[in-house]
């Protein structure tokens, strides 16, 4: 899994999810620091409540895109992400080797890095590999490594097997006729 994707997956899995509901792990300063380190959060520097609110808003926007049932709902998530990350501005920096990169010049560093990483995943056509588990009891976000990009469960052994057994039992309990 690309490092950018790993950081985004870790961020998305900080949200409250699963049954029973797991807590928002951004509430734990140590966990938040660990998850946000790939996005430039300095070690030992606490996040402000405003920063946490912004990060949560961006996380919600990304989950809206991932959970979208149709392009219109995905568009809503992308539009909200664009608005929530609008303060992060970048400039292009060119090197003598003929390379170009974006350098953030304004806005919250963490939000900017999250937005930049998501943009790179979209550009590289790997964003669609980030998914939420199809098991409604789980909903853990994972990176689909299959060639066909059709993985539905974060763990087939746990989530996929449970859903398949439940479906099998439901079919077995139907009256035959």
TrEMBL record:
Transmembrane segments: none annotated. InterPro entries: ABATE (IPR010852), ABATE_dom_sf (IPR023286), Znf_CGNR (IPR021005). Gene3D superfamilies: Jann2411-like domain. It comes from the Bacteria. Residues 129-171 form the Zinc finger CGNR domain. This is Putative RNA-binding Zn ribbon-like protein.
